[in-house]
Amino acid sequence: MIHWNSFADFLAMGGYAGYVWGSFGATALILILEPLFIIRRRKETISRLKRQMRAELASSSRNSVE
User: What spatial distance separates the first Cα and last Cα of the chain, rounded to whole Å?
Assistant: First the structure.
């Protein structure tokens, strides 16, 4: 079991603080950003599909008139 004598020792992580907290920070950043990127991509996809549907409907209505 790991035991630290003080909070400063805990933060220092036995001399590996840069690796431990850097990894923790990178993971936290990814976990925060990934859902935001997914939401943005979903909105872009829905918008693109709506434009495609409008273009197809306009094209089919023009073809049916001719």
Answer: 81
- Residue 21: which domain range? 8-65
Q: How many folded domains does the chain comprise?
A: 1
Tell me the pTM: 0.65
Ordered mean pLDDT values, 10 residues apiece, the chain (66 residues): 82 90 96 98 98 91 68
Phi-psi bin for 61: left (phi > 0), alpha (psi -120 to 50), beta?
alpha
User: 37 vs 8, 41, 46, CA distance in Å?
Assistant: 36, 6, 14
Apex 14 CA angle, 8 and 17, nearest 5:
75
Let me know if residue 3 belongs to a domain: no
| SS3 label, residue 4 | coil
